[in-house]
Predict the 3D structure of the following.
Amino acid sequence: MKINTHLSLAVIAIAFFMSSCSTTYDATPQIPGKDTIRNPFQGDFTATIDGEQFTANTKYITDMSNDGMRYVSISGQQFNYNMDTTRYKIITLSIFDYQGPKTYYLNEGVSGIYSNIDSNITTNYTTAQSDTLSAITITSDQASWQGQFNLMVIHTSDTEKDTMYLSNGQFNIPK
């Protein structure tokens, strides 16, 4: 009987202790406005680059207005397989006169850039303005940015005229 009483008191004490220490751990208590900072690892951003799968680890959104014109940029960065900070790939989609969810073509102020960074040597590809098939479709800009893209990009060097295709691109990035 004495053991049962001690065991009961121990269980009650542990329950009381655990309920009194149930606050959520906060690793950054000193950062004001931290609840408005978006975690760049949230969401999805994928594409196929000339047959090779691209899956972004970090995703970024820029949405700003200037003199009545709204600019939107959506980026995804894929880390190297061993997380080497000198090797990564980035796709950036830009809409220079954003007017809400719809399909935007290159002749409507749209551009795309694909960058491959390898040991601090950057190779850039950008959309060819003569391309009439490349497009970025925004299907939602409410709780998250959602859409698809297909782009033809060319090497930015005057000496190289390589062409790459960014196809089956999709993104769903929370605000």
Q: What stands out?
A: The two ends are 59 Å apart (CA to CA). Residues 2-20 form the longest helix (19 residues).
